[in-house]
Structure formats: C-alpha cells, structure tokens
C-alpha cells in the first residue's frame, strides 16, 4: 500500500468527503488504478456489515472514490450504478468534481453508459446533466435521462419558476421534447397529468409551439405517431391525445393525415379511435374522403367490438347515404358487415339502415352484386332480424319457418389424470424445483416436487443440496441475516421455499416446530382452517427433514384433483411399517382427507387391509374408510348488506383428537369467523391447493373464499377469479357457495375475470353440475341489490352464449331477469322507474338466446316492460324477447 492510497483509504473509511476530493485531485491515473483493488475489497466488506453498522458511513466516500479511481468509462458507469452503492451515493456535485478533469470524449462515453442504464439503477439526473455540460456532448434521449429531465423541470419550478418558464430556458428543449414521444409511458406520469396553469405540461408545450420555440410539424407528427404506435396505457394515450387536441390542427393539417386517422379508427384504443372518427366524419360529409376510402374506413370500424364506435359509424353511413344515394351500391354491403356484431342492437340499427336505403340501389350489375353480398351477410343475423332481412331482400325461402334443430355446444368434460411419480434423479428434481420457485405451478407439479424433495433428502441430502444450488442461488434468503429469514418463514412457509431453505440450513429448527399456541378456535380469518392446515404440513415436512427425515409422503395425491386412492395409502403405510418410519401427523391427516370415497367396495377392501397392518395409523384409516363422511357441511345463505354469503355448520367427523389442531379448524362453523380488515390469503394460486386438500368438497373451499370474491365484485377491485375454473372442475357437489362464487365472477369489473367465470359456468354445465335456477336466482338478487351490474352480466352471458351455449345462458337469464323486470313493472305510472344501466343489453342477450335455442314459455313481468312507452333499447329488446317467446311457443 502506497502512502497516497493509505491516506485515500483512511478518508474513505472515515467518510471524510472533503479530504477524499483533495486527495484524488493530485493523483495520477496509475496511482488511482492502484487504489481500485483496495476499494473493491472494502466494498465487499461493507456488504457483510449490518445496515445499522457505523461502517456504513463509508458508502458515500467509497462511491466517489471508486468513480475517481476507475479509468475506464465502462468501469466508472458500472461502479456508479452498483446495486448496494445506490442507496448511499455521493452527491452529484462531488462526483462531477472528481470526474471533471477527464477528457470530454471520455466523459461523453460515461454519460452515454449512465443514460442507457435501466430506471431501476436510479442514476441521478443532476449527475448526467452535469457531465453533459462538461463534455459538451449531445444530450442523451434515453428513458432514464428523459424521465430525470422531466422530474428536474418539475423540481425547478417549485424552487424558482414554472414549468413553462423552465422549459423556455432549457438549452436542449427541442431534443428532449422530441424524445418525449419515444419514451414509454411518459404521458402517464403524474407531473404531466395533474399540472395546472403555467405548470401544466400540455399547456406549456402548446404555448411554446405557438411561440415557435418548438417545431409545429414535429409536435403534430410526434403526437400522431405516438398514438399510432399503440400499446400505451389509457392514461398515456389520454395525455398525447389531449396534446394533439390542444394543438388545434387546421383543416389542411388534418387532411394530409387522412391515412393516419383511418389507421387509428381501425386499431387504436376506443378514445383515440373516437377522436379520429370525428375528424374523418367531417371529410366524409363534405365529400373530401371519397366513397371508396369511406367504405374502407367503415369496414374497419364496423369490425371493432366497441358498440359506441360501431353505432356512430352506422349513423355516419346513414348521413352519407342520405346526402348521396348514388353510393348505396358501395356502402350498403359495408354496412351489412354489422350484421355479424355480437350486440343485437347494432344488428338492428344496421338492418334499419338497409330498410331505409335499399331502394336507392340502381337496377344494374352493381346493385345485383350488392344485394347478393347483403343476402350472404344476413345469415349472420339473429333468427328474428334474419327473417326480416331476407323478406326485405326478397330472398328465396324467407317466408318458410326455420327447420334447423338447435344443438347445445358445451366444452368437453375435464377428467382427472394420474400424477406422475416423483423425479428419479436429483438433477431432474432440481430443474422442476427451480421452475416452481420462479413461477407458481399447478397442484400436481407442486405435490410431486414436494414428494421428490422428501424422498431425495432421505436418500442423499448432500447430493440434493448440491443439485439445488443453482435454483436456490437467486433466492433472497441465501445471504440474508438469520433474523429476517426466520421472521419471513414464521409468518408463512411460502410453499416449497421453506423446505428448500431448510435443506440449505437457512431456517432455525425452532421456526419449523409445529405451532401449538392457537388455542382460540375462533382466532384467525375465515380461511385459517384451510391455510393453517396447508401450512402445518409444510412446516412438518421441513421439521422432519431437519430432525427425522421421512422416506416419502403419505398424502401425495393419486390424481390431479388431489384425490388419493385408498389402496395407495394402505400400501404406503405398509412400507412405513416395515421400515419402522414414523408417519408425520399432519401428512397422515392430509392423506385421510384426500382418500377418494366413490367406490364403497374398494373402501371396504382397503379398510380390511388397513386393519391387518396392526398399526395405529392403519386402524385409524380403517375407521375413517368405514365412516359415513358427509360430502359437504350443512349450509345456509344469508344477506349481509349488498352481499349474499354462505355459512357452514360444524363437520362432526373433524372433531376429537384424531386430527391435529390445525386440521380440526376445518370442521368449525364458518360463522365463528368475522370479517377482518386484512388477511394474507388472497392469492388464488393458494386457493387451488386448498381444493386439492379437500377433494370432493368444493363447497368447503368456496364458502371460505366467497367473502373475498364478493367484496372484489362490489368494490371493483382485483380478486381471485382465476380460481373459478378450477373450482368448477373440482370433484364433488356444486352447491350454494360454488354458484355464488360464479355469480360474483360474472359481475366482476375486468373482462378477463368475467371470462374465468364464464369458463366455470360452462364447465359446470358440461359436467351436469350447473343448477341454473340457483345461479339465476342469485344473479337476480345480486343485481337488484346493486352488487352485480346488468351491463357486466350482459357481456358475460353474451360470451357464454356465443360459444354455442345459448340454451345454458337462457336457462340462467330466465331466472335472473324477473327480479329486475319486477322493479320496473312495479314502478309503472306517471313516472316509470328508471332502468338500470345495461338492462336493455341483458334483455337483448336473452332474446338472442331464445331465438337461437328455440326456447318456449313465458317470462314474468316481461309483458309489463314491453308495453312501456317509447322506443328505448330496453323496451325494444323486451318486445323482441316477448315476440320471440310467443312465436316459439306456437
């Protein structure tokens, strides 16, 4: 160690920044490079120091010293953005000072590398901007730099000015504003969206464009290109659309971008497409667009699913046809494309357009082709409108009643599959464990991997640990202090993690001991019976790996549903008996709950074989197999505010000392648990494991998660709706709780959540487990309470029907609609009751289902609503539904 390096290291360790700056100022490149190994060693030492250690005060000086002593641009950038250094960085002015004597070209390279770092590197903007000034290089336009610049403009206005003033004085205004259009999600930032007055970014950019400081064409082209690129969030699109609107384009500027507006109409998000549609509407009405281009535009818009856009385009088509009837041959076939739209109201509008303008077709070859095209497209209409269309077109067979026989289409019934055995080699097992730790897998993959860990830990623990090394290397607990790790696993096993961490000696034995301090049987949340039982088995497995390894697991399922063949369990207990192994209490309890009970003769045979084992577990299994265990607890429905819930009675077979305390909680009445502000069990991946814990009893799980799904639907939040298809596929009876879960899912806010509920609905129907009367009644009651919105229910049932399940969808709507219609029927009089938003859509879906399925019968309160005055969508669709039901009843 040289004298110079010794002084520098003392300054670094003591955190003396002023001494450090003075020392590096007089050092040569060679002297600086000589200090780098010692600085790296200190950095390594500090990583092992606790966060509260006094040694941590060396981080800012270490950060500055490393930047000053590295002589390569790449090395400096890597040092400045080191993950542990970024939390206690040196101030940017200090870093600029220690780097300021370098060659400008070298500094420019450092800036480039810093600016290209990801946002997570958190490189200070002041540092990058200061180096740009020293280097005299072009300003970077990377995401990190642009976002930092935008924050800097906002911070500066709080100190001494406004956003518009700071932008006006910025020397790199044009380059950085142009970069805004290329930076992902920059428009969604709050300092753009929520500024006001002179601090409003949209106002500032618009004003600077008017002043000529920003090129108008660049601004307009940038906005349009950004919107054309697509993929941005709603907030991001709203900002750039607002900027484009604020620029107030002239007619010439709008006209020269007709191709762009057309592309936006076809593919942009609905708000952007609506703006482009309004721009093109003016050109279409004054003839500047041309009939051919207008036809192309209309075809693109009518292909979209958004009803508002499609309806607006049909209105525009009507105006153009009225202004110029000679375009009928070209435009009417385009309008007929709306016949295939999923919304029957859109179909009706398109058909009325045909009725008004079909006479405008000239009797020539073009008119004949147009009629043929419209006739072909009419086949996509619902049966009622289709007959009207064929009559209008004079197509052959229009007066003949439909003779096709309706056939319900439902998805194939899912069948359970046998689980593969645990991986034979530690290498194969390690690969599966790595995949499961990285992303949640299915129940089958989890259970066979868990059994594989137990088997290989019993055979050769050292070989297993070595093979698991790469999979465990990325886990945070591998190099963390024992305290946080124990606290983490004390709160939850976190699936396979607790077992893997135990194999690596990262969890203390006391943390793994079964928790026996939960004497209050009403403690915990409503999920605790399932969650604590699941956790208890994982803790037991980890504890036994540490103290008394098990040869294999008793409760590993035979089938993918979680069910366990009784004969398999007897065979496993026999191996335990012969080897002298002691079964795990929680593992054996889980095995009992998983035994499949659908074959009485197989159960009797397995019970006889179990008694012959002569062990306590064998006798307990025999008793369990011969006990008439109910398929589900006694349940009752109750209403709590806007929610309908299900409460369970006690499960007698779970009482006594035959089950561990955690498992006995499964038999407690659900009414003993009250709603809690927070519980950690909202992960639907965890819920799927609960289903496999109690196969054949989906109600037991559905009742526990019903509160979560109901609150998510009512409060419009994210919920575990992805669990619903698995719930529907589960073995066992689908009762009150399962149907209510599906009902709440059909009313979920997000389309993907409603789709999961539709999948569950169709699976229940395919398996013959759907009680349409029960589900429809629940939906009707929830809709009246306001918990399920008719508009969302309409979209969900339309999706279900469009798969070919029109009969199934109608069987549900037949029960759901009367309560909603009753409210309107009771409100008849001088001032009729207003219809809930989306009820007209819902009645329209019902009419579509009746037309396609040929359903018969009457619907209570439908006649009263159909006889209301006016021609609203609700009244029109009610009349259509009534007419169709009466027609099919003939």
UniProtKB/TrEMBL annotation:
<dbReference type="InterPro" id="IPR056726">
    <property type="entry name" value="DUF7824"/>
</dbReference>
<protein>
    <recommendedName>
        <fullName>DUF7824 domain-containing protein</fullName>
    </recommendedName>
</protein>
<dbReference type="Pfam" id="PF25148">
    <property type="entry name" value="DUF7824"/>
</dbReference>
<feature type="domain" description="DUF7824">
    <location>
        <begin position="524"/>
        <end position="628"/>
    </location>
</feature>
């Amino acid at each position: 160690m040289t004298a110079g390096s010794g002084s520098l290291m003392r300054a670094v360790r003591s955190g003396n920044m002023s001494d450090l700056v003075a020392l590096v100022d007089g050092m040569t490149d060679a002297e600086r490079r000589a200090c780098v190994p010692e600085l790296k060693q200190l950095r390594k030492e500090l990583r092992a120091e606790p966060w509260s250690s006094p040694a941590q005060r060396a981080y800012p000086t270490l950060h500055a010293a490393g930047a000053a002593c590295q002589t390569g641009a790449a090395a400096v950038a890597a040092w400045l953005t080191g993950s542990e250094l970024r939390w206690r960085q040196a101030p940017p002015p200090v870093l600029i000072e220690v780097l300021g004597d370098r060659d400008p070209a070298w500094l420019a390279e450092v800036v480039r590398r810093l600016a290209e770092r990801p946002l997570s590197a958190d490189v200070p903007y002041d540092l990058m901007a200061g180096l740009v000034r020293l280097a005299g290089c072009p300003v970077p336009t990377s995401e990190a730099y642009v976002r930092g610049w935008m924050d800097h403009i906002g911070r500066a206005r709080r100190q001494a000015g406004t956003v518009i003033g700071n932008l006006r004085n910025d020397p790199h205004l044009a380059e950085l504003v142009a970069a805004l259009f290329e930076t992902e999600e920059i428009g969604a930032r709050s300092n753009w969206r929520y500024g006001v007055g002179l601090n409003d970014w949209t106002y500032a950019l618009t004003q600077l464009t008017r002043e000529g400081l920003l090129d108008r064409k660049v601004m307009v082209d940038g906005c349009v290109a950004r919107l054309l690129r697509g993929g941005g969030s709603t907030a991001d699109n709203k900002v750039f659309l607002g900027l484009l609107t604020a620029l107030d384009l002239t007619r010439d500027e709008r006209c020269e971008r007709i191709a762009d507006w057309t592309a936006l109409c076809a593919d942009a998000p609905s708000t952007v497409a609506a703006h482009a549609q309004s721009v093109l509407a003016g050109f279409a009405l004054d003839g500047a667009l041309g009939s051919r281009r207008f036809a192309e535009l209309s075809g693109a818009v009518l292909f979209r699913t958004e009803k508002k856009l499609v309806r607006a385009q049909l209105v525009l088509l009507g105006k153009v046809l009225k202004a110029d009837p000679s375009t009928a041959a070209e435009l009417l076939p385009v309008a007929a494309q709306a016949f295939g739209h999923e919304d029957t109201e859109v179909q009706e509008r398109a058909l009325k357009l045909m009725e008004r303008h079909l006479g405008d077709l000239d009797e020539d070859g073009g008119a004949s082709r147009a009629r043929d095209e419209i006739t072909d497209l009419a086949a996509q209409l619902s049966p009622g409108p289709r007959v009207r269309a064929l009559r209008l077109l004079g197509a052959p067979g229009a007066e003949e009643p439909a003779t096709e026989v309706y056939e319900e289409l439902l998805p194939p019934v899912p069948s359970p599959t046998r689980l593969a055995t645990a991986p034979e080699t530690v290498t194969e097992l390690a690969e599966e464990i790595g995949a499961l730790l990285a992303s949640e897998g299915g129940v089958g993959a989890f259970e066979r991997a868990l059994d594989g860990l137990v088997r290989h830990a019993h055979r050769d623990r050292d070989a297993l640990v070595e093979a698991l090394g790469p999979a465990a290397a990325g886990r945070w607990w591998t190099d963390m202090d024992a305290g946080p790790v124990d606290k983490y696993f004390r709160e939850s096993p976190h699936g396979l993690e607790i077992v893997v961490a135990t194999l690596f000696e990262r969890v203390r034995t006391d943390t793994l001991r079964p928790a026996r301090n939960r004497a209050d049987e009403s403690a915990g949340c409503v999920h605790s019976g399932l969650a604590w039982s699941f956790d208890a088995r994982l803790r037991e497995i980890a504890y036994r790996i540490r103290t008394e390894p098990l040869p294999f697991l008793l409760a590993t399922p035979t089938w993918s549903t979680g069910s366990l063949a009784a004969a398999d369990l007897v065979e496993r207990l026999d191996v335990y008996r012969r080897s002298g192994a002691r079964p795990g209490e929680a593992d054996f309890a889980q095995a009992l709950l998983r035994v499949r009970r659908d074959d009485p003769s197989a159960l009797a045979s397995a019970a006889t074989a179990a008694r012959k084992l002569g062990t306590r577990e064998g006798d307990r299994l025999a008793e369990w197999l011969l006990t008439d265990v109910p398929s589900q607890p006694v349940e009752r429905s109750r209403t709590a505010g806007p929610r309908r819930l299900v409460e369970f009675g006690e499960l007698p077979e779970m009482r006594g000392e035959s089950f561990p305390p955690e498992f006995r909680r499964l038999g407690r009445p659900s009414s003993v648990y009250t709603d809690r502000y927070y519980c950690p069990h909202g992960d639907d991946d965890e819920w799927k494991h609960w289903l496999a814990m109690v196969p054949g009893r989906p109600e037991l799980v559905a009742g526990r998660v019903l509160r979560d799904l109901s609150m998510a639907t009512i409060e419009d939040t994210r919920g575990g709706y992805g669990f619903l298809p698995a719930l529907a596929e589960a073995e066992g009876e689908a009762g009150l709780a399962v149907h209510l879960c599906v009902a709440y899912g059909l009313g979920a806010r997000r389309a993907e959540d409603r789709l999961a509920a539709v999948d569950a609905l169709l699976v229940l129907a395919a398996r013959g487990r759907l009680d349409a009367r029960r589900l429809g009644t629940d939906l009707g009651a929830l809709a009246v309470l306001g918990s399920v919105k008719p508009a969302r229910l309409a979209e969900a049932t339309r999706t279900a029907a469009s798969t070919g399940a029109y009969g199934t969808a109608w069987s549900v709507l037949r029960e759901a609609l009367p309560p909603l219609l009753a409210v309107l029927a009771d409100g008849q009089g001088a001032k009729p009751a207003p219809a809930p938003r989306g009820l007209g859509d819902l009645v329209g879906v019902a009419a579509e289902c009746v037309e396609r399925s040929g359903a018969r019968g009457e619907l209570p309160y439908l006649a009263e609503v159909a006889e209301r005055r006016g021609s609203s969508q609700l009244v029109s669709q009610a009349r259509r539904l009534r007419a169709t039901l009466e027609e099919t009843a003939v």
